[in-house]
Amino acid sequence: MKKTEIFSIAAFKENSIWRQILGICSALAVTNLMMNSLIMGLGVIFSLALSNFTISLIRNWTPRSVRMMVQTLIIASYVIIVDVFLKANLPEISKQLGPYVGLIITNCILMGRAEAFASQNSPIDSLIDGIGAGTGYTLVLLMISFVRELFGFGTIFGFKVLGSWWTNWSIMVMAPSAFFLLAILIWIINTHYYKAKV
Amino acid sequence: MKDSFWFPIVFMLIIVLIFTGILSVMYRLSESKIEAYLTETYERRILGTLAQAIADADAGSADDITAAYPESFHKYVQSMEDKGFERKVYRAVVHDSTVAYCFEIGGKGLWGSMRALVSTSTDFRTIYSLAIVDQQETPGLGARIEEEWFLDQFRNRLFVVNPDSSDDVTQKYEFIAEAQSPVNDSQLKRVTGATITSDSVIKMLQDEFNYIYKYYGTKANEKD
Amino acid sequence: MDISGFILFWAAIFTSNILLTNFLGMCSYLSVSREIESALGLGTAVIFVITVTAALNWLVYNYILVPFEIVYLQYIVFIIVIAAFVQFLELLIERYAPALYYTLGIFLPLITVNCAIFGVVLFMIIRNYNFIQSIAFAAGSGIGWLLAILMLAGIRRKLKEKLVPIGLQGAGISLIITGIMALGFVGFSGIVQIQ
Question: Tens-of-pLDDT digits for all 198 residues of chain A?
Fold first, then answer.
């Protein structure tokens, strides 16, 4: 498989959220603002790429019985490395990411890609798959948060777009709105992209 | 070999050692940087809450004082040791007399605890300024209590209105929506969609002021 | 901290439901809610894992991490404890209940990263619960999660899914149902003080 194919399959055709229904928890919590989604997305891309790469490197040595623990340990380590690095060098961004660090570690996408791809493919391919899956995830998050932020706060990335005539939709500010938006997104994608037929 | 009994255990141990090793090294190396950053942010916050009082008593504006960190911090701010009082206390001293106090207070929010710094007048009845140090509320919702418009509501606010009460010495408040304007002094704007978090801030202030005022307010003559 | 374990237990099931109020534990919830039997199986496993790992992690945190000042390793340690326990449980289920093992499929290892379990551990640390409170809170959260997944499974069984538009079948309609349930649970927030 060509490298670009790996990327596009991971990001679009087998997108983690709308196709595999993984990584939903964070999709609800961080999509209230686009900035939060972007930061979370970047954190996921970084951790996912590196953990996929590492897990793939040692895949031939990992005994079956401790497979899950090894994967978990590697995933958690990379996330914390990202967190410590940010805290020390980019503290402002770290403050934004702070509450979400825990969410990245338990993000099912990381474990899911580790099991499904990294444990059976070469390191470079796994790295690309990780970047692809992370990018697909980030795109979905940005799409949902675009709607939520626009209708809930009248802003995009913090810039006021809708004037004071706009009444903020409280439901967009609350987490359950992400459920509905995600369902609509899945509906649209299933109908047009996958051409779901009866 | 992969399926023998000992290999998985040894393998696990090696991996654990490698990764926790990397993490520990990274952490130890960054520890002092992180500490320094946290201390600086904390001290700047204290200075920020006391800046106006200092500026009124000395020269310059509040902004000049805050910008002159760390010199202005070491010049004007002292930490107070008081074994009987369970909070951190700082005071701003200008020309050998205290112009304001700053207390670190804490309370419970919706998702976790919150800590704040509140500066008060020397009679401990008026809030000069409030700054949030730590909170775990929902980003974009409860976390908006850190925004200026919310905290500014507490600037120069008389908070202790019943000094002789043995119950609650503070002002009672009602919350109004963010989009409305307060019609009198007992109305405060809450953060839209974050009623509980907004309530928690007030509850924290009321509980802590009761503690502070009953301890220091009555000893006001003993404190210089 | 004077909140009784008893109150925490009930609050964790209803008013601060780990899934419908805190939105943790979604992935397996959405996928395993097709059949009531597998929902029941997974839910029971989750209750078991949550309660035991909360207890274990509480002990590890208070008797190892804090005294040795390695609290910064807490995320790793907690997730390892959870992963080890789930791996152990997987071996047990594979041996003694192979039908359940087959139905659960990939979702058994995914219990490890079930945000609900990790989230409960983090909450108990942040809110400084003592041992009894932690166990009560964890058990209640597990039961709350089971309750949520059973509700969804029950609704889906009754739902004439053929009437749902093609693109919305499966995950889509589950999300909408969950969203409505979550909105209902918003009404409970703050009723019972749990910290």
Answer: 678 888 888 888 888 888 888 888 777 778 888 888 888 888 899 999 999 999 999 888 888 777 878 888 898 889 888 888 878 887 877 776 666 777 788 788 888 888 888 888 889 989 999 999 999 999 999 999 999 999 988 888 878 888 778 877 878 877 788 899 999 988 888 888 766 554
Preferred mutation among C17, C19, C20, C27 to probe A, highest tally of A CBs within 10 A: C27
Q: Please report, for residues B40, B41, B180, the alpha-carbon distance to residue B133 in angstroms, rounded to integers and kept in the order given.
A: 12, 9, 27
Any A CB within 8 A of B97 CB: no
Domain count, chain A: 1
A-contacting residues of B 137-166, CB under 8 Å?
A: 138-141
Disruptive mutation site among B35, B113, B138, B203 for chain C (greatest number of C CBs within 10 Å)? B113
- The closest of A33, A22, A23, A12 to A139, measured between CA atoms, is A12
Q: How far is CA B92 from CA A57, B157, B214, in A?
A: 58, 19, 21
Residue A64 forms part of a structural domain:
yes
d(CA A188, CA B10): 50
Beta carbons of B19 and C189 less than 8 Å apart: no
Residue A198 lies in a domain: no
User: By the 8 A CB rule, do B60 and B76 touch?
Assistant: no
In chain A, which residues touch B (CB < 8 A)? 30, 32-33, 36, 58, 61-66, 69-70, 73-74, 77, 80-81, 84-85, 87-89, 91, 96, 99, 153, 168, 170, 173-174
* Position A70 in a domain: yes
User: What range defines the domain where residue A34 resides?
Assistant: 3-192
Distance CA(B76)–CA(B59), nearest Å, equals: 12
Smallest Cβ–Cβ distance between B141 and the set A32, A80, A84 belongs to A32
Is the residue at A197 inside a domain?
no
pLDDT confidence bin for C72, thresholds 50/70/90: confident
The answer on pLDDT for B25 being more than 60 is yes
For residue B221, the model assigns a pLDDT of 42
Q: For residue B8, what is the nearest residue in chain A, using CA coordinates?
A: A63
Residue C107 clears pLDDT 70, i.e. is over it? no
Residue of B nearest to A35 (CA): B140
C-alpha span between B152 and B175 (Å, rounded): 15
Distances (CA, A) of A122 to A67, A103, A125: 17, 27, 5
Q: Which residues pair with B102 in a beta bridge?
A: B90, B119
CB contact under 8 A, B19 and C127: no
Q: Are B152 and B130 in contact (CB under 8 A)?
A: no
Give ipTM to 2 decimals.
Answer: 0.82
